[in-house]
């Protein structure tokens, strides 16, 4: 039986004009994950990632730590994150909040959770975004591809919190709203594991950071 390793990207640039860019800490997290796997002799038979820059940069950091190319590679927009700004704009039109205090940070994520729930229920249609059915259907298609093609193999998948939480919700057959709670907990560079068989995927671990489990790396744990 193979294993699908779903990795959330390293710390991005939250609060900057361009979020889709790893911070120096985010790059270090990705390299450290690759080093951790190299120390344990990890090899991947297939690699998948979203097409966002932070996915590309995270995979590059992992490969750097592994000291080997990560291929064959499949790049698919089905693993891209939803547009958080479009979601919030759909329920709170107007200028974006400058998220520069702890209270504004909390307010941002309260708004995001509310917007996600309304998007998933079909109450709002954020500009430039797919429907929830299309978004979750894209993630489901990736999982079907992994199950159909890679039973018995180790597969690395680099994505974002939204698609990874959606994948977990699909595998566990939870109510769609559970995806929101899962999404809000996934940490940067965290690893979630599914076992792969021809018939099904099964959750083995969620949101683990074994590669940062040391006094040296404890303060590398981030959420955004």
From TrEMBL:
Pfam families: His_Phos_1 (PF00300). GO terms for molecular function: hydrolase activity. Keywords: Hydrolase. It comes from the Bacteria. InterPro entries: His_Pase_superF_clade-1 (IPR013078), His_PPase_superfam (IPR029033), Mito_Ser/Thr_phosphatase (IPR051021). This is Histidine phosphatase family protein.
